[in-house]
Amino acid sequence: MAGSEFAVRPPHPSLRWLVTRYIGYRQQDVRLPVHRGLPSRHVTLNISLAGPVRMIAMPRPDQAPTSARALAGGLHTAPVLIAQDRDQCGIQLELNPLGTRALLGLPAAELSGYVVDLADLGPGRLATLPERLADAPGWRRRFAILDEVLRAESAGVAAPAPEIDWAWRRLCAARGLLRVDALAAEVGWSRRHFGERFRRELGLPPKQAARVLRFERAGELLRRHGRLDLAELAVTSGFYDQAHLTNEWRALAGCSPGAWIAEELPELSFDQETAGTAAADSTV
Question: Residue ranges of the HTH araC/xylS-type domain (predicted)?
């Protein structure tokens, strides 16, 4: 893509239980008109340094499309469709869902499936970020402003319940390949109590969260390695078989793996018609 610039940095060490990383981007001559925001382990904060971010389809069918300079999206099990301008610039923050109480003033469960204007969430310091970041002279200064504001916003806030924090970290480390009853037993709770507490904090039941993590793993492998046999990718990512992978991809991404690759990774030259077979020519 012509004129693409990315800057990636972890936050200040005191924030790393709240934020995984900052991703700054500047892109020119963007050809893909609509980008799919896929389900992942993160609550996402997207701050535009140019025009508003335009969401044209939401994960929940009961939420109308919206646009804003800064948007927060909770954990979700369906794609967000984002209209792309030819030239765009902004910063994306990957938030630990267990840190949204500290940063956004509400649990991740209240954001689950929704994308909302950051200005509607309440924290005044965060609402000023689009203007402050747009006026800053470069990525280093912008990331320093994020450190400053987020550290002030989260100062003195208690950490989440240790059992849920531990279980979420354990599930993420296993890429979703853990049984819910085993996790509950390790925490020392009944499966029902564990599931209720987990969903109350993150917004997704443990089984759905594990589903998202397996899907996320498959997407990461495709981006990292490019040409992969889909049957092998399915097994590596924790799916039963290639058909299971394809069905989950349609549910969570809103399209087949081949359609997504054609949109986001067109250089892979993937034949969608053979995506559902295990033949030798079904590699991507």
Answer: 174-263
pLDDT per residue over 164-174, tens digit each? 999 999 999 99
- HEC per residue, the chain: CCCCEEEEECCCHHHCCCEEEEEEEEECCCCCCEEEECCCCCEEEEEECCCCEEEEECCCCCCCCEEECEEEECCCCCCEEEECCCCEEEEEEEECHHHHHHHHCCCHHHHCCCEEEHHHCCCHHHHCHHHHHHHCCCHHHHHHHHHHHHHHHHCCCCCCCHHHHHHHHHHHHCCCCCCHHHHHHHHCCCHHHHHHHHHHHHCCCHHHHHHHHHHHHHHHHHHHHCCCEHHHHHHHHCCCCHHHHHHHHHHHHCCCHHHHHHHHCHHHCCCHHHCCCCCHHHEC
pLDDT category at 22 given cuts 50, 70, 90 is very high
